[in-house]
């Protein structure tokens, strides 16, 4: 049986947070455990260069994401784990794909506009090119499934368009990939506004946070009097209830909702219970991380084996594409 392929990646711009974990990593794990799929997971170091970063710490930042991957249970025996820049075929394929995509299309992407708003001094060609490189990341493996959060949907749509155009113009056989959706496809910020993100202080909980840190971060989440006619649908309280559902289940969320319109919620208790539930899930992840932190040689071995396997697949796709486009 030919297995369906999966590709996903995370940028090396800090330690992984619950948004990455619930939106992307949980899907990566689910597909890794499904025997119908062959999974390729990278650290997207080239995409990291599209927003301000520190070249002195980049290599270490990449290793931190690799450690997080191994800690959550991505298993080199089951998944190919690699660093994006170690498979240069992605960049070459991206250039070939760029011949099918109009500039106007890229300039109008909401993801481009939002990132530019966050980093107005960094209007670079690389940032504009992000979706093309992402299409190459995915299509180099002819991946059909891409576990990512909902914010990446416009990029997956561009990938599908590129696949269609390449197939109709050059007779290639690229699949049209779909996003693999998880329950946490949109994890809100603790601040009560927008999504959880590394770049917004106070918005996130990291996978490496201990119980005290989790409690401290939750303490900063805005609340209200705990009572009212209707349960809030957005803002700090609504977000806390989403976290309760994600980590403690729907039943407990419903109990809090009942309390809100009745006797009232005591947020100190809610936050205490939620902090413990989050930490329970993170504890085994943190223990596994420690074991890999102590064995950097093993980590390097995993990465070089992963890059070799990924290169073999990507090289084949690149060769086919060059042939189809008349270059060889
Ligand atoms: P960040 O937005 O923190 O810089 P990345 O852009 O590197 O993180 O995203 C890595 C993966 O994590 C992507 O698949 C993205 O969709 C997912 N992700 C990031 N933040 C969230 C969130 N708040 N909710 C759900 N998924 C998220």
Description:
This protein starts with a strand and ends with a helix. The protein has helices at 18-32, 45-48, 58-72, 89-98, 103-107, 110-118, 125-139, 153-170, 211-219, 236-248, 250-260, 267-293, 296-324; strands at 4-11, 37-44, 79-83, 145-147, 178-180. With 328 residues, the protein is mostly helical. The structure holds adenosine-5'-diphosphate. The site of adenosine-5'-diphosphate has 19 residues, from strand 1 and helix 1. One of its GO terms (cellular component) is cytosol. GO terms for molecular function: ATP binding; tryptophan-tRNA ligase activity. It is an enzyme of class 6 (ligase). Keywords: Aminoacyl-tRNA synthetase, ATP-binding, Ligase, Nucleotide-binding, Protein biosynthesis.
Number of DSSP helices?
13
**Biggest beta sheet summary:** 3 strands, parallel
* Count of strand segments: 5
Bound molecules: adenosine-5'-diphosphate
Can you give the mean pLDDT?
96
Estimated radius of gyration: 21 Å
Please give the share of residues in helix: 40-55%
Integer tally of domains: 2
The best one-word shape is globular
- Which class best fits the helix and strand makeup? mainly alpha
Reported CATH architecture of the largest domain: 3-Layer(aba) Sandwich
Span of the ends, CA to CA:
31 Å
Give the C-level CATH assignment of the largest domain.
Alpha Beta
* Spatial order of strands in the largest sheet: 1-2-3
Determine the CATH superfamily of the largest domain.
HUPs
Keywords: Aminoacyl-tRNA synthetase, ATP-binding, Ligase, Nucleotide-binding, Protein biosynthesis
Family: Belongs to the class-I aminoacyl-tRNA synthetase family.
Organism: Candidatus Woesebacteria bacterium RBG_16_42_24
Protein name: Tryptophan--tRNA ligase
């Amino acid at each position: 049986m030919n297995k369906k392929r999966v590709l996903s990646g995370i940028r090396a711009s800090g330690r992984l947070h619950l948004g990455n974990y619930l939106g992307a990593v949980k899907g990566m794990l689910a597909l890794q455990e499904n025997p119908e799929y062959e999974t390729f997971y990278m650290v997207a170091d080239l995409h990291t260069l599209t927003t301000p970063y520190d070249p002195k710490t980049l290599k270490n930042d990449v290793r931190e994401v690799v450690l997080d991957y191994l800690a959550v249970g991505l298993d080199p025996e089951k998944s190919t784990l690699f660093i994006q820049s170690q498979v240069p075929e992605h960049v070459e394929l991206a250039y070939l794909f760029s011949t099918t995509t109009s500039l106007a299309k890229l300039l109008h992407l909401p993801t481009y506009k939002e990132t530019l708003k966050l980093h107005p001094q960094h209007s670079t060609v690389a940032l504009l090119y992000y979706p093309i490189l992402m299409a190459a990341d995915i299509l180099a493996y002819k991946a059909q499934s891409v576990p990512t959060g909902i914010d990446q949907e416009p990029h997956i749509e561009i990938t599908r368009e590129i696949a269609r155009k390449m197939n109709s113009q050059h007779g290639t056989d690229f699949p049209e990939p779909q996003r693999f959706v998880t329950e946490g496809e949109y994890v809100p910020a603790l601040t009560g506004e927008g999504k959880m993100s590394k770049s917004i202080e106070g918005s996130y909980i990291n996978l490496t946070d201990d119980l005290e840190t989790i409690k401290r971060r939750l303490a900063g989440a805005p609340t209200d009097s705990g009572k009212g006619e209707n349960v809030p649908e957005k803002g700090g309280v609504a977000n806390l209830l989403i976290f309760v559902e994600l980590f403690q289940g729907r039943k407990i969320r419903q109990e809090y909702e009942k309390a809100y319109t009745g006797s009232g919620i005591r947020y100190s208790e809610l936050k205490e219970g939620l902090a413990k539930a989050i930490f329970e899930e993170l504890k085994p992840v943190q223990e596994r991380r420690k074991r890999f932190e102590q064995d950097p040689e093993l980590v390097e071995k995993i990465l070089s084996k992963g890059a070799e396997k990924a290169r073999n697949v990507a090289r084949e796709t690149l060769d086919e594409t060059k042939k189809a486009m008349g270059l060889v």
